[in-house]
Amino acid sequence: MIMTNPMKEKLKRGETVFGQLILELFTPGVAYMLANCGLDFVLFDMEHGRCDLALVADLINSARGAGIVPLVRVPDAGFCPLSRALDLGALGLMVPRVETGEQMRDIVSQLKYAPAGRRGVALGVAHDRYRPEGPSFFGTANERTVVIALLETVRAFENLDDILSTPGLDVAWMGHYDLTVSMGIPAQFDHPRFLAAMDQLLASCQRHGIAPGFLPSGPAECVHWIGKGFRIISLGTDISVYQGALRTFHDSINASLVASAS
Question: What pLDDT does residue 262 have?
Fold first, then answer.
């Protein structure tokens, strides 16, 4: 059975898709919780999170069972083989620190089967639910796979059009913290140079038919950047949303107790 990728289909229709980056709560239940909230995708972080391949295999399987699209952020472009998370059943990869068009073309080649690329073939494993398909499988797999470039350095933005013109690239994701550090303006997200980079990314995505992605800090920022044109959005991270909700819950109780005691 070949699982389709409804997230990619929504992006093709020009719709906005929502998910969440998971940095800490690597439990099979998290995919079901996100699906219950109506999210489109879950992005498991192997770069900064403590997730390894054995753990991500179980998480991907759970996400597919929950009906939410599993994506994986790999540690770097040198993660070998780059397609290994796809063989485990992920429907897309985010690759960090993409800086040149040559690098982007190599990444796409590793993630696509021939003739579009050079991805190694293993059938009858997790990604095809242990049921090998016929010749049509390869084109279907290429089409459903989401390729996300994480753009987070000054060099990447110097080569932006060359990167985004790469056939097979689907999403250009703003790596805002790393980019501001690379610019020498760490975490200054209202700085004119950073805002200019956001506009640059949106304009290049528009030229090349690529969906721009971002991780805003809260609902108001989400609405703002969606209005600007971002179409794939992480609703914070598991850490930020959980701590934020718990803090609000706790503060509300304390405020009520103080009010009732006065």
Answer: 81
